[in-house]
Amino acid sequence: MNIDNNSFDLMQPSPVPILFIPFKNNEYECNNCGNLYSKTLKFEQKYCKNCLLKYKYTTGSNTYLDVHIIMTNNAQCIEHKATRNNFCTINIQEWCKYCSEISYFRQVFSDYLSFNNTKFFNYEVCDNLCSLHLSKRRPQYYQLSSGWVESILSNKSVLILYLPWWDNHDRCLVCPRELNYVQQESKSHCQKWCSHCFIIYIGCRYCLTTNIIFGITNQSQCKKCKRVSFFNIDIRNSIIWIPYSQIRNLKKIAEGGFSVIYKATWSVSSYPYVIDVAVKKLINSQDISKNVLNELKSLYQCNDGNIWIIDCYGITQDPVTKEYMLIMNYAEGGNLHNYLRKEFENIKWRKKLNILRDILSGLQTIHSKNYIHRDFHSGNLLLSHKYRNISSNWQIADLGLSRPTNNASSNDEVYGVIPYIAPEIFKGAAFSKESDIYSLGMIMWELTTSAPQNSATSVPVERVFSGGTDLIAAKKCSFKADTIRACMCLKSWQT
């Protein structure tokens, strides 16, 4: 930003860390000295006068800050008597705690909304949120840049944005949740993150810049001074950690290739009673791997208080095997596949439509979060009676293979139940929302005929690729005339 020869690119990194500005603007006390924060005249940016005074005497006359200072008419200050008539300066060395006030720090963004359409000193911060322009001159901009860094959860890179300003917003820019410090004990307090979105915000206190990393990594480098910041996100601090001693009476109810499911009781310390839970032990998960975090991330992001996604209460660890275990809501009604096998003859069409409504609502929730399920079948649809205001509802579970839509690369390996997998997946296509819809179609067929795999006919591979017209030997639905809808469907089928 080349404005009044006060370019960001020309400002040198500070020789000492700038500790008088918080990294979260909702704080009241200085993390460095404990004094109460003061506020700038414009935009109410917080800063510590005590630490600013120490910083002033530590640094020289070089320009390290893009700051605007106004001298006030204070008769008690003899030192600056000749220059206090509303004199403006950008030199931090001329700041005096007795006769001057900080108007604003141009490098600090605390509340984006307060900058919109606000004119000050011939400048206007645009709705762009990251551009400034000088009236009657060509636009000038804070130059943003981006790059890619290696993720510790996968072999893929994640996006990083290099912001040439100090972003001390206290809430995530993607979701409304408050940001948490990565290391609470750190005096610098320049690392914060959103455990819901897995987005990390790293500030450089020597340059007042911010890196935003859209994924989990363990280090970040300032674009300006090249300093490297290391950090370690403890999974126990990002979600609810449940002591293993509170989980009792484990009884195995299912087992798959990646996990073992138990029914258990949870003695919640804050409740006078125990509750039934489902415990999912993740096989060979002694180390927090990308698969563990991916399932946690999927559950937390897709659930978000939604009744159509299974609840995850927290995580624990088997003290013997050291394998991690997810503690989830126990769906006492079982899965849809077993339910249809037992009750198909007794289920009326109105109830089938209600089941389908719950399933559609859950899948719509997942897709609205820009996720795909990738393992969508009737065994992952569970009947819960948790919510008292409704008799029952079906919930989507097992989000272990779920991925964001922008991370759905081609598949070297295909996992899932074959009848529910879209044909193009077997030819190397990537999982997508469309492949989830194919799986939904098979579930709808199962609601109609009780189980699609029971009616499947073995077909040679050559017939599949030859385009034979006799491949779909559809089994007619066994409709019962219990509702008008059933009669209409039967008539439509016959015609």
From TrEMBL:
Gene3D superfamilies according to UniProt: Transferase(Phosphotransferase) domain 1
Domain Protein kinase span(s) in chain numbering: 247-495
Sorted UniProt keywords: Kinase, Transferase
Matching InterPro entries: Kinase-like_dom_sf, Prot_kinase_dom, Ser-Thr/Tyr_kinase_cat_dom, Ser/Thr_Kinases-Pseudokinases
GO molecular-function terms, A-Z: ATP binding; protein serine/threonine kinase activity
One Pfam family named in its UniProt record: PK_Tyr_Ser-Thr
Taxonomic superkingdom: Eukaryota
Keyword Kinase found: yes
Protein name per its UniProtKB record: Kinase-like protein
Species, as recorded: Rhizophagus irregularis
Taxonomy of the source species: Eukaryota, Fungi, Fungi incertae sedis, Mucoromycota, Glomeromycotina
